[in-house]
Design a protein that fits this description.
Number of helices: 13
Helix content: 55-70%
CATH topology of the largest domain: Penicillin binding protein transpeptidase fold
CATH superfamily of the largest domain: Biosynthetic peptidoglycan transglycosylase-like
Largest sheet: none
Number of strands: 0
CATH architecture of the largest domain: Orthogonal Bundle
Radius of gyration: 20 Å
Distance between the termini: 46 Å
Shape: globular
Length: 282
Amino acid sequence: MVKKLKRWLRWLLWAVLLLLVTFVLLLWSMRWVNPPTTSFMLQHNLRALFDADLDFARHHWVPLSEIPAAMQLAVIASEDQKFPDHPGIDMQATQAAIAAYRSGQQAGGGSTITQQVVKNLFLWGGRSTFRKVIEWCLALLLELLWTKERILEVYLNIAQFGRQEYGVGAASEYLLKKPVSRITREEAALLASVLPAPARMDVTRPSQYMRSRQAFILRQMNNLGGEAYLRRLSAAAGGSLSDPRHAAFSTAVTGFWAGYESSALPEWDQTPLLCQGWYWQS
């Protein structure tokens, strides 16, 4: 009986290891192969089957080279202004969010563009500590396997910008009624303004809140240095072990858990350039 149990455990261990290796290879291959769909799109389409008022997800891929620099910069200004520098997770914002959660306060901030990519591709919505831990681990792994430019390209093609519009291609076609290449700075900022709650905000009928967010994002785009800021993504795409992102990765987990164990809320940077545009992406 004991031998049989050991044999089954050994087979189970090998099966788990095989699944992990397969997943890593799949994730690595997506550095070049565009994902045809995502977990969030599949969940959306499942809901659409039972909701006559909800259309199926609209989506088509647009290469990063065809997406205006203003659109690229707008989502960074809105969602993750430390994107070129962090190893997948923003340690300070994540530790602050954890400390706030543990003290019973509302947890805000912490979701980087990289985290949103892995969540949309593989995970599910809702506030869940279990999901968030998986998200953190996958974000760190993704940063080792993909370049910053690839992460941004996938994000722009899978993020939800409308009730059923996923990716900047569908958003431009169905919401702005124009080709992606003709998106202006103002329209890019308006699209980015819906990212905290795309299913509840309408680009075609922007609310006062959306207009204020649009104006904020435009200011942040200027504060970041304009489109020249995007050159930092190419500089961060070296991929060697000397890459600062890889050095940051080696300390990220240690630093994160050190923050998790601390009951004190870390000092929060209140500078609008880095903080005002952050939202907890649940």
